[in-house]
Amino acid sequence: MKQIFEKENITEYSLITFDNNLVINPRLLPDGEINSILVFLVPYRSPSKPIDEYGVSAYARVKDYHGYMKGLFERIVPALSKKYGVPFYGFADHSPLNEKLCAAKGGLGVIGKNSLLINEKYGSFVFIGVCLSALKTDNGCVDIRSCINCGLCAQSCPGSAIGDGIILAEHCLSGLSQKKRVTEEEQKKVADAGLCWGCDICQNVCPLNKKALMSPIPYFTETFLDNLSPECIEAMSDEEYSKYAFSWRKKEVLLRNMHALDMKKSQ
Question: Which of 9, 15, 188, 256 is 20 to 30 A from residue 110's alpha carbon, by CA?
Fold first, then answer.
């Protein structure tokens, strides 16, 4: 297993016994016997820094991880199935399991007050994937641990959206920035925070992220958009635009936020 993941520059993974309490979407469970969960983390933090002043979250400045996971599973699922003699089934995001809790129960990180998984090596700048299989293991789940509870994320959140391990969705500016339609008040809140898509404020102030390592995976480090602008977005072909996470909304949403931020700066 180590050799398979090392080829992919993935070091953070854990094999735990299957726990029905982690299932959130039973209809997605594969048929047949399931005995274990292989959970792993894919770091995406890039050493590149934005040149522009448009607040676009780091996860959206690199290519969408769904495309990466698709290719990854095409490589590792056959390799794992061959090595252990049982079928493996890979999931990321559209999953039968609560992936964050799987990672926490696998000892891959703590749960922050901002509800994010925070890994000791890569911080919260990670995507999570899981593989289910009939492979048996004696590795039990560990107790879910919380962060150091310093409160900096909650204090710094411009929308006051962070409760005790929960996010108040109606106040989260990351969510507001991605809404198809917003009120004038909501648009003002997003612009006042300097945001155009997503929000990294709670991650950037977190002490546990201060020493987070950069991703060793070229898919992310070599695709970072460091100089975004309305002109850049408008010039993107539909195919190119679709490769990034903000493409789940049409260009109009991101452009709307960029223009709102430009208007605020000009006042």
Answer: 9
> Six-digit token pair at 92?
């990321």
Six-digit token pair at 111? 């749960």
Predicted structure pTM score: 0.96
Q: What are phi and psi of 247, to 5 degrees?
A: -75, -5
- For 11, 129, 221, the CA distances from 242, given in Å and listed in that order, are 29, 21, 18
- Rounded mean pLDDT of the chain? 96
Is the predicted pLDDT of residue 49 greater than 70, yes or no?
Answer: yes
Dihedrals phi, psi of 244, to nearest 5 degrees = -115, 155
pLDDT at 86: 98
Strand spans (E) along the chain: 13-17, 36-43, 55-56, 88-91, 110-111, 117-118, 126-133, 195-197
What is the distance between the terminal CA atoms of the chain, rounded to a whole angstrom? 57
Half-sphere exposure of 221 (CA within 13 A, CB side): 11
Is 93 an active-site residue?
yes
Whether 103 contacts 124, CB under 8 Å: no
Point out the catalytic residue in the list 52, 64, 93, 238. Answer: 93
pLDDT value, residue 165: 67
Rounded CA gap, 1 and 204, in Å?
33
Percent of the chain, pLDDT > 90?
96
Mean pLDDT of 176-183: 96
